[in-house]
Prior knowledge:
Elements: H1 15-25, E1 35-42, E2 69-77, E3 80-88, H2 93-107
Antiparallel strand pairs: 1-2, 2-3
Amino acid sequence: MDTKKKTIRASEQKEAERAAWRKQAAHLDSSDLVFVDETGSHIAMTPLYAYAPRGQRAVGKVPRNYGVIMAVIASMSLSGMGPAFLWDGSADSIAFAIYVEQILAPSLREGANGGPG
């Protein structure tokens, strides 16, 4: 055997459930699909490694204060990027509910949110 780079997959993946979703989703109109994702960041996220000439120490600077955590929740569909929500703090179920109920749902076209159409 040869040494090869691993293909990494999330340990939480459940292929049977994914296959069932693909079978169910095959009947959906792709123009009605809206995908939602969240990401977060804070200024204390500093890379631990850097490049430097051989024999010299790599020097970097980090913020003195930790700063706040910022989260962004946004949506995307075939028509493009949907509304985004910038949240001061970690995204949790409350932030997600606010985004869906007050920002995303009102922006959906008739029929895309499960209503008539």
